[in-house]
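Quiz preparation item.
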């Protein structure tokens, strides 16, 4: 990665991940722990209002009943969210309307596969019948607005050579006070072998670059 790349990327310690940085003076989290699937958190406790429960377009782990910032602050006011994660097998960037066609093609080609992915056991998303492209665009606009407002962070997963959309990562507030964030991800069926490496890379990224102490990864 050359100095001309202006996403402020750096190598994470002991990994080949490259990630945008923020808040040079942020104190590393202490006692960070995963809230795993063996705890009381589940798809019915953390994101029970989860994937598309608020309507067929809402695919993130928050839905319309995400705790408001008046109730709890998802990230510190001065937090600058990372905007890139790069590995040899994929790269992440904020999901937006510009990804609509490729995002729609990715998940509609892999509905059964996504529905069987860890973290998607409630059967609410993706809809078996698919979704029109214009409704998918509305969905992506909501995700982009959440990112801008720092109330949720959704990243498209891109194939590093072709730039094609191969998945998605969602970082949204949980309902339970026992966790600080709920993390879910999927990849299209043609890239099923990327599922675990993606989830693991995101876990490392969160520990190094994001402010949350307690991370809920449903099914992982």
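Solution:
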């Amino acid at each position: 990665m050359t100095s001309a790349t202006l996403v402020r990327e750096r190598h994470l310690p002991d990994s080949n991940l490259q990630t945008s940085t923020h808040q040079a003076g942020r104190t590393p989290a202490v006692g960070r722990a995963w809230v795993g699937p063996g705890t009381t958190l589940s798809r019915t406790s953390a994101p029970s209002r989860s994937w598309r429960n608020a309507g067929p377009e809402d695919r993130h782990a928050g839905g319309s009943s995400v705790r408001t910032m008046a109730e709890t602050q998802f990230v510190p006011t001065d937090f600058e969210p990372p905007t890139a994660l790069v590995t040899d097998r994929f790269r992440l960037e904020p999901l937006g309307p510009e990804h609509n066609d490729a995002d729609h093609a990715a998940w509609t080609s892999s509905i059964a596969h996504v529905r069987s992915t860890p973290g998607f056991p409630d059967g609410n998303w993706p809809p078996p019948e698919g979704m029109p492209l214009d409704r998918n665009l509305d969905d992506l606009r909501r995700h982009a607005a959440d990112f801008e407002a720092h109330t949720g962070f959704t990243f498209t997963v891109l194939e590093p050579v072709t730039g094609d959309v191969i998945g998605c990562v969602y970082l949204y507030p949980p309902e339970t006070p026992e966790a600080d964030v709920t993390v879910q991800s999927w990849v299209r069926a043609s890239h099923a072998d990327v599922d675990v490496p993606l989830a693991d890379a995101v876990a490392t990224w969160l520990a190094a670059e994001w402010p949350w102490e307690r991370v809920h990864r449903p099914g992982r």
